[in-house]
Amino acid sequence: MNRQEFEQLLSAWKQGELTADEAFNRWQATSSPTALAKAALVDLDRANRCGYAEVVYGPGKSIEQLLEVFQIQELAGQSSLATRLSTEQLDGLEAMVPGIIINRLARTARRQKVSTAEAPSGQVAILTAGTTDLPVAEEAAETVRWMGGAANLVFDVGVAGPHRLVEKLPQFQEADVVIVVAGMEGALPSVAAGWVRVPVIAVPTSVGYGANFGGVSALLSMLNSCAANVCVVNIDAGFKAGYLAGLIADRRDD
Amino acid sequence: MNRQEFEQLLSAWKQGELTADEAFNRWQATSSPTALAKAALVDLDRANRCGYAEVVYGPGKSIEQLLEVFQIQELAGQSSLATRLSTEQLDGLEAMVPGIIINRLARTARRQKVSTAEAPSGQVAILTAGTTDLPVAEEAAETVRWMGGAANLVFDVGVAGPHRLVEKLPQFQEADVVIVVAGMEGALPSVAAGWVRVPVIAVPTSVGYGANFGGVSALLSMLNSCAANVCVVNIDAGFKAGYLAGLIADRRDD
Amino acid sequence: MNRQEFEQLLSAWKQGELTADEAFNRWQATSSPTALAKAALVDLDRANRCGYAEVVYGPGKSIEQLLEVFQIQELAGQSSLATRLSTEQLDGLEAMVPGIIINRLARTARRQKVSTAEAPSGQVAILTAGTTDLPVAEEAAETVRWMGGAANLVFDVGVAGPHRLVEKLPQFQEADVVIVVAGMEGALPSVAAGWVRVPVIAVPTSVGYGANFGGVSALLSMLNSCAANVCVVNIDAGFKAGYLAGLIADRRDD
Amino acid sequence: MNRQEFEQLLSAWKQGELTADEAFNRWQATSSPTALAKAALVDLDRANRCGYAEVVYGPGKSIEQLLEVFQIQELAGQSSLATRLSTEQLDGLEAMVPGIIINRLARTARRQKVSTAEAPSGQVAILTAGTTDLPVAEEAAETVRWMGGAANLVFDVGVAGPHRLVEKLPQFQEADVVIVVAGMEGALPSVAAGWVRVPVIAVPTSVGYGANFGGVSALLSMLNSCAANVCVVNIDAGFKAGYLAGLIADRRDD
Amino acid sequence: MNRQEFEQLLSAWKQGELTADEAFNRWQATSSPTALAKAALVDLDRANRCGYAEVVYGPGKSIEQLLEVFQIQELAGQSSLATRLSTEQLDGLEAMVPGIIINRLARTARRQKVSTAEAPSGQVAILTAGTTDLPVAEEAAETVRWMGGAANLVFDVGVAGPHRLVEKLPQFQEADVVIVVAGMEGALPSVAAGWVRVPVIAVPTSVGYGANFGGVSALLSMLNSCAANVCVVNIDAGFKAGYLAGLIADRRDD
Amino acid sequence: MNRQEFEQLLSAWKQGELTADEAFNRWQATSSPTALAKAALVDLDRANRCGYAEVVYGPGKSIEQLLEVFQIQELAGQSSLATRLSTEQLDGLEAMVPGIIINRLARTARRQKVSTAEAPSGQVAILTAGTTDLPVAEEAAETVRWMGGAANLVFDVGVAGPHRLVEKLPQFQEADVVIVVAGMEGALPSVAAGWVRVPVIAVPTSVGYGANFGGVSALLSMLNSCAANVCVVNIDAGFKAGYLAGLIADRRDD
Amino acid sequence: MNRQEFEQLLSAWKQGELTADEAFNRWQATSSPTALAKAALVDLDRANRCGYAEVVYGPGKSIEQLLEVFQIQELAGQSSLATRLSTEQLDGLEAMVPGIIINRLARTARRQKVSTAEAPSGQVAILTAGTTDLPVAEEAAETVRWMGGAANLVFDVGVAGPHRLVEKLPQFQEADVVIVVAGMEGALPSVAAGWVRVPVIAVPTSVGYGANFGGVSALLSMLNSCAANVCVVNIDAGFKAGYLAGLIADRRDD
Amino acid sequence: MNRQEFEQLLSAWKQGELTADEAFNRWQATSSPTALAKAALVDLDRANRCGYAEVVYGPGKSIEQLLEVFQIQELAGQSSLATRLSTEQLDGLEAMVPGIIINRLARTARRQKVSTAEAPSGQVAILTAGTTDLPVAEEAAETVRWMGGAANLVFDVGVAGPHRLVEKLPQFQEADVVIVVAGMEGALPSVAAGWVRVPVIAVPTSVGYGANFGGVSALLSMLNSCAANVCVVNIDAGFKAGYLAGLIADRRDD
Fold it and tell me: D–G: how many Cβ contacts below 8 A?
């Protein structure tokens, strides 16, 4: 099935000539490896196996490829999330996907399933040390929201102003899980973890200069945290932190 | 209060001459900084603030110091856990603390609270890639058990024998959280994470030789995992993985 | 012999005024070091000593220099392969070398010997973890093809979707040698190696972000692979992987 | 099946009371996970899936565990190889396994299948730069021999004595594959590779001092080799180099 | 002047046969390079140029050499400090130098000038994150004391117990300079610096495990501190921190 | 309070309709978190807690945000300093903030409190090894001046011209504290420290090429200085060095 | 003396109104520190102390500054050399300095003293592994020539073509010192050193890709060379290699 | 020729039954590869090709092997030098090789040719920063002496005592080449190089603690030296520095 045939199929489905099941079956039956190659193999079984649809990593993908993945997932009754999008990719998706939610600071685009009647599944608090950590924090927040959770950002509570964190305690002490985003010396997760009794997911950011080595300094701090309830994800990996937080918060409703 | 006075206090309490409250208050009132210095400041408020008592990191502590911490925590109605103990420390604690649970592979000692009537709070699966990863896995398991959770070890399912992991799926696919312990190339967490819909806590071990750099190779693999549900703790940090898993599993019963 | 004289020589040979032997001898006899300097010393003995002609590394070479090497090799009865070419270099070669085979994804150009009557010498399977690994895989494939082998690409079988690799087993289990291209955590070679009984050549790619250090994370994973049949080449070194695979597959016909 | 029962089973089989098939089936049927745990899961399917039996990595294993693996493999009709053995382990195996071949320089022990009627399958040349590289080279050689190949060691041909390598050309230029073992600057693989038309497997060793970083210097040299036919294995990984060489040489007889 | 002659000189001086000036002049006039070589060149001008006598770095020096330096400095009217001493060195000095002050935790020995009538020159607070940081803190404290300052240790106020630091504020907020000693993630200097208006000297320690790389993790944290008033010394460099603190506190009395 | 309301408040205050206290109280009372988010939380308590107002790190901030912080600090009776400003930011501030002091080499902007009647508090000498270290030195100097100290630059006294440093001794030997800025091998702090009896703050710069690793070479030199009176700040951290020097020099007047 | 006065001085000297001595003395007498600051302190004593004039490192200097240094050195009777010049700097110097020798591949500019009657002082051979190493080799050659030595380039003799180096032996075996420039695995210095009895100066270049880390791979190879007669300079440091070679070759004529 | 036969040959030669030529020829004719393997291939041609006999690297060699090499070299009319010898090796050689010169600080043993009538060929100055650098300096000195040069050690002139180096200028300023041995921050070569007009060979040592990384800190300092006349050898590589210095000094007499 080439691009043209695929669009005919989508069109038929949108105009009610085919049910979603019929369209999906036809698509699966006829897809040739070549057609699939254009947008990589979409792992449609992921939602079933892992609980959430496959998330699209944006860099290097054409807008056409992004659209194709979004359409295949819509056809399969799944929601969509794309991360690390460029301004061009964000513009393209915003123009062409009805109901898409764009977050330009987070550089994400998401399309929720239409009939998500379920209430939000848990509370995720997201702390940032400084304003430059905000994009990573927003990427985490968007991921949590896409998974149906509630994300509460508490920003600019870096350790150099010790009173700030204490003032904000009520905003994160009752969360089901806490994400802490910090660059430079990455001390905030250790400090915040001492105030809560839930898991803390630390996200080092590449913010800083000199011997911060693109975030390695913060990464090492977090790995060596003396607090027992701190785990770590990769540098700038807001998506991964959000996804883990969503899973942890979500389990309440299992 | 010096060592001798402290022992008199403990003795009076054990013989019923003092209630726990009376003993605890007396100890708090009279403790001089010097006495405290001997076993560091025991953070007795930790159990209240974080949900679990402070855990003792063994290296460099004398058996006397370890005993003192265990006794203070017992007096305060808290359970105890010590990690990274040497054979001498394990022998000493085993001989002197009634009811202590020693795990010589994990190099841990724990004393549970007497009247823990609560049922285990969740299921934690712990996978290991090879037999040399076992001590770290056991440390994680002991920590989970100390927190009241159930730990199920699934061992030797390294990726070089691909059929092994699939055969063991029933043993970990229903867990509330999965810990994966692996050295060398650290590929197991990525592979295991693809089969579950819960958080995976990856623990790199220092097992290997050559360019594994004491576990850094496995650590980097895990940080760069293409699976979204993988977070990482420090090299050989079985305790931290177990603690996080205990928190995640425990939240079901909140 | 300056550029102009060299072109006259080539022209005379193409118009049949000189046999290849005559042209080659004349060229060798008169070449001054200065002329040679322009396109580096072409190691014409390489084909005899190593079985294949010298391969040209593109960066920093002018189109004129590239053409000169292709012509010298054609004159000496050898095929040609150039790698890491820029768009400008690819355009220039495509315009000026009849019969050249351009692969823009791989950024390679090759000219086969006209009368290669020999059948392909072996089967090389090339696996990729994600779509971003494709250029490196294509570079490997082009190299295999230039050596007379058959290259079969099996793409997007990263470990996060564990069922994908198993589904593709028939496409690589019968190959004479397997190349595995992967970035991020670089786990795929270890996993794939467990399914085959032939050598696996692992190629780390610089794909990823954060603590992947431009491919070092994947490189270390592959070096520390617990599978015994995995060797490694440099980061992004698709050419070298293809060359080694070509040699291994080719030896069947020795 | 505990240790005692296992020995009774072996004894019955050796005295002809049971055929190998009967013994093997009985063992498989009754083995409890606990018994298996003692010597890790022996991957008996490996020989079928990968062509060669599982190889035992010695460190941390008791002599009893090593013996158990050797016996299980013997029972299953497979040969055995153990690497990185200590003097104690070597002594223990030598004393208790009839017909075992011990190489104390290589620190290996192997037991060949009794009825290997097949001729050696290929020629592997193993070059070393200095005498201190010899143990790693011997480990590679033993592995090749265990696989049925012929290993020819050409030693002490480091690049500081340029005439030496050329003098030894006849000893390695006709091999099916060449292993080069070198520490310090690791230049030998690049130089040797220029003289042959077969794959070269480079093994960096931890030999050296100062800024060699336990072999990293040689490893980087080999990864960055300007010769196209050089692949690399981990530092000191003689076994892996031998295994790969065995596979490459063996393929002739497929 | 050989060892014997040197001892005769010292003896004559101690018995009043020579004034200090006479002894010192005689020693300077006759010292041959060989004699000096035994205990390295003692930089007697250091006290004049830098304000404090040269400090002896213990490792690799014989007890005889240490004694010689102490005696030369005593002869020249200077006080002495030696660091990083082994138990043997400490025992030797304790036995042979009257009035020496030994600190076995700090591994230091110091001899103050007899007639130091001056009052202590300033207040130095020294904070430690954990008990294992104590030896480094004590080395700093001994250095401060040797320089005439007052050192106040505030220990075990690591960030995992956030209330502890706040409780101890009165003990360090009025100091003239604060030294913070911490291993693992090295977060304490950043946090403490937010509470004071004086310079903070951060000392990373090699305490920790896994990816702490012998203190590099803490070192990077401290270098990247978001607090403006934090400078850093080398890993475990308690002496250097103490010396700098002594200089800063001392300047009040200039 | 949105941007517009904030400007009305400022305007009312400038026109005398409100006292500073009234304006400040009104602003504090009505500020919504959203408004604050625009320019991060300004830590107005910093001046009280730490002795100096919060310093603004420029990168990533809009001119509007910078202005807002300057205005809030002016309103609160505090001086302002911003660092690492781009040409655009410098131009914007210069145009819009009356009395601002711009240093384009240092890339700083500062606004002093109007009525600073106090005399400069101390002497800070700043040495540079080469001309390329000048911007970092100027950043340090501007910070010292903002704090009320006197900064004396002594430039181009690198160790390759040994007579230069000695010639300049009178310019820095009487300072209260010395800052040394150097790239490449970073030897200057060690050499300069031998000539003074005050603390030396070493600032490594990213100046150099090859194996200098963006300043790491100089950083390591400085951390390993054999001189006892050398502490270190991050690579290129002129601001931090200046701030520490200001604190040390300032303490004379406490 | 400001820029204008300096130009008047130069003009007067060129028109014979002042002798060189008079001009130089006047310049020295009146130069204010501010004027000197513009072009850094020119170390005019360097030629006397070290045998050669100070060499100018180009990056970051304006053409005006470069000219000023060239003029001051001319005035002082010294020759000039500037390295790492941009195209703009090369154009500017070429246009404005009569008799200047520009090497655009080396990115150098030099002005020799007019009356250098001395014969070349020694033979320096410069070997390169590949064409991309040429700019660094040329920088070395220009430096040698500036010092009065003869530089003989032998290019493209990388180890992958082993016969090439042997063919070129006559071109470098009689040199007084050999410079070897190589990137990638950096094996050439070790190999070349085995053929000569003079010092070999190895220059690693940043040429390569993947795990070459901008030349670190070649640097480590060279530092770990098994050949005793190999010393190393920084990555891409052609100037330094040339300078050392010039000194070694020059010593013949002392 | 086995060990016994070899000793008979040596014995015959020593008793005059064979001339050296006869003995040498007989040895060469009959030596089997196995015999040679015992002491590695002695590169007897090295003296001819490189000017000096092969030097023996001691670690891992038995005393028997060392003796064998010394005897072969004596038989071939060559002198001998062995480095990095253990106390046992030094004792063994001292006992069994008449006329051997042992340096226990340098850990070297050398045997000079009997009839070296030549005068010393040049002056090598060797500077050390501290007493702990002495063993490396002595290794360099012994190497220089073995080559016939004169080595003058100037010790303990580290940069922290700036007057010391200047006082010692007469001891090294007239040398033909200067070796500088330093650990910690490795600043001494840069400083010393500014005072001389000859090549400086810098030897980093592993002396130090904390972030010195076993000498890497000093190595980087030396590679990044701002002095043009500094080249570098590996960490602790006293032998290599001595060998290069010997070559440079020796060339005067060519």
Answer: 116
A90 in contact with chain C, both atoms CB, cutoff 8 A: no
The one-letter code for the residue type at A167 is E
Residue H112, both tokens: 């000079």
* Strand partners of residue F201: F179, F231
Going by beta carbons, is chain B in contact with chain G, meaning 3 or more pairs sit under 8 Å apart? Answer: no
Within 8 A by CB and 6+ apart from E19, the residues are: E13
Residue B244: Cβ-neighbour burial (10 angstroms; 0-12, 13-18, 19+) = buried
List domains and CATH numbers for chain D. Answer: 13-111 (no CATH), 123-253 (3.40.50.1970)
Letter string b/e over residues C36-73, b meaning 16 or more CB atoms within 10 A of that residue's CB = eeebbbbbbebbebbbbbbbbbbeebebebbbbbbbbb
Tokens 């038995």, residue? H62
Sign of the alpha-carbon dihedral angle for E65, E67, E68, E72: positive
Neighbours of G, requiring at least 3 CB pairs below 8 Å, are C, D, F, H
The residue written with tokens 């670690």 in the block is H59
Residue D200 has pLDDT above 90, yes or no: yes
- CB-based contacts of D74, cutoff 8 Å, min separation 6: D80, D111
Coil, helix or strand at residue A47: helix
**Interface membership of G61 toward F (CB under 8 Å):** yes
What is the model's pLDDT at position H252? 46
B106-110, B129-133, B135-139, D185-189: the lowest-pLDDT one: B129-133
Q: What percent of chain B has pLDDT over 70?
A: 84
Size of interface F-G (CB pairs under 8 A): 35
| Kind of pairing between the strands at A108-111 and A80-83 | antiparallel
Give the pLDDT confidence score for residue D102 in this predicted structure. 97
Each residue's pLDDT tens digit, E158-181:
887 777 888 899 999 989 999 999
Q: Residue E75: name the closest of E21, E128, E35, E33 by CA.
A: E21
Residues E167, B45 contacting (CB under 8 angstroms): no
**Of D132, D209, D211, Cβ closest to residue H60:** D132
* B216 in contact with chain E, both atoms CB, cutoff 8 A: yes
F139 Cβ under 8 Å from any chain A Cβ: no
C58/C67 Cα distance (integer angstroms)? 11
What is the DSSP secondary-structure string of D88-103? HHHHHHHHHSTT-EEE
Please name the residues in contact with E98: beta carbons below 8 A apart, sequence gap of 6 or more.
none
- Residue among D161, D163, D211 minimizing CB distance to H234: D211
Judge whether D235 is closer than 8 Å to chain B, CB to CB.
yes
> Cα(C200)–Cα(C133) distance, rounded to whole angstroms?
17
CA atoms within 13 A on the CB side of B199: 33
Copy the structure tokens of residue A210.
Answer: 């000199």
Mean pLDDT score, E86-107: 95
CB contact under 8 A, C236 and G155: no
Q: Kindly list the distances between the CA atom of residue C111 and the CA atoms of C79, E4, H45, in Å, as whole numbers in the listed order.
A: 6, 86, 46
Give the Cα separation of E206 and E182 in Å (integer): 9
Which one is predicted more confidently, C222 or G43?
C222
- Residue H44 is classified by DSSP as T
Higher confidence at residue F103 or residue D34? Answer: F103
Task: Indicate whether A248 pLDDT > 90.
Answer: yes
Contact H112, H145 (CB under 8 A): no
Residue G19: which residues within 8 A CB-CB, separation 6 or more?
Answer: G13
What does the alpha-carbon distance between residue C86 and residue C109 come to, in Å, rounded to a whole number?
A: 11
**Does H33 score more than 60 pLDDT?**
no
Cβ proximity of D111 and D99 under 8 Å: yes
DSSP lists the bridge partners of residue A177 as A124
- Distance separating alpha carbons of residues E181 and C237, to the nearest angstrom: 46
For residue A210, the distance in angstroms to the closest alpha carbon of chain F comes to: 4
Amino acid at F43: D
